[in-house]
Specification:
- By secondary structure, the protein is mostly helical.
- The chain folds into two domains: 5-93, Rna Polymerase Sigma Factor, Chain: A, CATH 1.10.1740; 99-186, Arc Repressor Mutant, subunit A (Orthogonal Bundle), CATH 1.10.10.10.
- The protein contains nine helices and no strands.
- The longest helix has 25 residues, at 74-98.
- It is elongated.
- Mean pLDDT is 81; it is low at 99-112.
């Protein structure tokens, strides 16, 4: 489906700097962006939703709208940008957890690196490394491929001989297993 004449005109007005057009764009697509960002599949805390919504519209203002190709609808384009923002946030969050975990075996040693690492962060890293190590190899590789190697779903699907739609399902299951293992080790609940 192609962009309607109304959408094309709205884009043209936004790109010409019409503030009321930007407000209209925000009004029309805010609910769509909020719906995607607050989806349970991302598992983002509600406090983060506003920041992610803001990031989506900021990307549109900073050139994302100029890249729109009118072969599709504006709503599908904004939806894609929103999903990309969510994926970027997921990767950032996992990298923050794994930043001290390049090699799980090295973290399992009793050696403490120094005062710049807080005790609590070290403990989280140790538990996360242990939980990650307990995952089956396929789950570890799925998580590494997506979050560390930043491979798109299509490449992961080829690597594992599965469908693109199954990659998301598999990642979600693997992350759930990781969360459960982490909670078992720490005595928390998943």
């Amino acid at each position: 489906m192609k962009a309607s004449e109304q959408e094309k005109q709205l884009i043209k007005n936004c790109l010409s700097g019409d503030e009321s057009a930007w407000k209209e764009l925000y009004r029309r697509y805010y609910r769509l962006v909020k719906y995607i960002v607050s989806s349970p599949k991302w598992d983002f805390p509600p406090a983060l939703h506003k920041d992610l919504i803001q990031e989506v519209f900021l990307r549109l203002v900073k050139g994302g709208l100029e890249k729109f190709q009118s072969q599709g609808t504006l709503s599908s384009y904004i939806g894609r940008i929103t999903k990309n923002v969510c994926i970027t946030e997921l990767r950032k969050r996992l990298k923050a957890c794994l930043v001290d975990l390049p090699n799980p075996d090295s973290l399992l040693s009793p050696k403490i690196d120094g005062p710049e690492h807080s005790f609590e962060k070290k403990q989280v890293g140790l538990y996360l490394a242990r939980a990650f190590k307990k995952l089956d190899d396929r789950c570890r590789q799925f998580i590494i491929s997506f979050y560390s190697d930043e491979m798109p779903y299509q490449d992961i699907a080829k690597r594992f001989g599965t469908t693109v739609s199954n990659v998301g399902v598999s990642l979600k299951r693997c992350l759930k297993k990781l969360r459960q293992l982490y909670c078992q080790l720490t005595g928390g609940t998943s």
